[in-house]
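Folding Task

Wanted — backbone structure
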Amino acid sequence: KRHTSARPKRIHGFTMGQKFSVIAVVVAGAVAAVKVAANGDGGPKPKKNKTTTSVVEVTLVGASPGRQILILFGPPGAGKGTHAPAIEKKLGTPQLSTGDMLRAAVSAGTTVGKLAKQAMESGALVTDEIVCGIIAERIANKDCANGFILDGFPRTVEQAKALDAVLEKSGESVTRVIELKVPDAVLEERICGRWVHKNSGRSYHSKFAPPLSLKKGKLPKPKHMCDDLTGEPLVQRADDTSTALVARLKAYHAQTVPVLEHYGPAKAVGVDANRTMALVWADIDAATN
């Protein structure tokens, strides 16, 4: 999509758009039963070293009517920002960003928000314990009565375990993790072509969703990249470069695989996101039924 929300700036280790974005699906009461087609009557069992299954292998069965929240993993440029709103609309649950929740808690002056403010003012990182406390506060709100989409947490096994502990207190647990898979070589083209209107957050891509100001045959230089509505110049993120992307992907892969292993193939579903939006959404839709 052309006009989507821009990724927020980093706040002591956490970002809204979340470089290593994660969306977790939680169902209250008990874990939804999962049927793995490949492990059906007499079928072969998944290999122990397999971290995700494919969409066709996994079907949710007899899910609890309680709260549900969906999770989405994906490297920068995989399409999380494109598909997350559609998931939110389908489930009728809010998408929660750790960056948003952190700022809101600090602004509201909640107990955990005050701890976060103290950490930030002292120059320290906001701890996983504080973030989990902020999440616990936020998901108690009425708009989360049917569930919530957690965006930006967990990114590590330690954070996943901390989140599990919070959910266990109310009899909940993560029931679905969706990983959007895109080859690193493809991600470079997606990432390095992104441009953003800083004031509004509207985003563009020099190839896939160019602004009206980029005429045919022109190179995507600053003078040719302007916002469609205001005419103001677009900018590129400092880390949306080939050099920065290499480091970002290395960190993503190092952190993501252990988290996927933590949740296991019964909960983690891999989706080939290097296809048309319609095909990618069809798999996400099937995995969230």
User: Anything to note?
Assistant: The mean pLDDT is 79. The longest helix spans residues 242-263. The first strand starts at residue 23 and ends at 27. The helical segments are 80-91, 98-108, 111-121, 128-138, 157-168, 184-192, 242-263, 277-287.
